[in-house]
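In response to reviewer comment 3 from the previous cycle, which asked for concrete evidence that the modeling workflow produces usable outputs, we include below a single protein chain processed end to end. The sequence was submitted unchanged, and the resulting structure tokens are shown without manual editing.
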Amino acid sequence: MRTATLFILCIISFVLLEGCNEYKSLSPEIDSKKSGQIVSEPVYTCKPSIPSISSSTPTPTPTPLNIPKVKCLSDKDGDGINDLDDIVEGARKDAENKPVYKSEYYSGGYPPDNEGVCTDVIWRAFKNAGYDLKSMIDNDIKSNTKDYPAVEGKPDPNIDFRRVRNLIVFFNKYSKKLTTEIKPNDIKNLQEWQGGDIVTFSNPEHIAIVSDKRNSDGIPYIIHNAGPYTMEVDNLMRWIPGITGHFRFP
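The workflow returned the following structure tokens.
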């Protein structure tokens, strides 16, 4: 009877060890056969199988705001694309070209295509819509020098059209002036911010093109060059409260 009991216990122990055999730990254990020395022996432990849990509820997707787009009837270059869309397209081309930020004085006024500052994004965007912004500003400064205090009575066509202060004067005179306030998720307010608009800032003086791309709160991106090169970015809110002007041309 005793022999049968021992035989049964041996079989049970063998089954248990085989069932746990695949789970090993290399933690050091004390080997009683080696006078209490610590040796690395595999220890067999049984680990429960944990079923993976998958959520059957999908993550909700935010509903984008439907910001109405203003109708622009002007098409200066006659390409079938209205001026505001052309201005965005031109600014976006400059961002794709990635001209590095470099402030220099250039004979003739224009920097090479691979260089520029914030104001160069503006005339390049306008050029894509058929406007010669340099000539327009140079002519207005020549005829109304007193309106442009930054030139200090001495117009310089090589640089005047690339100065933020002069652009602010020009757009104040010849563009529609719009709100400088931005309210996230406020459709009425955000409708005033349209792709192709121009926005100016202080501290430091800066200028950018408003993009037709918006974030989930309805805030438009801006296309500008504040270094290292021209970019289309979602950071308009970072410039608050430094917005000094918001214009739509013509």
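The chain is about 30% helix and 15% strand. We consider this sufficient to address the reviewer's concern, and the full set will be provided in the supplementary archive.
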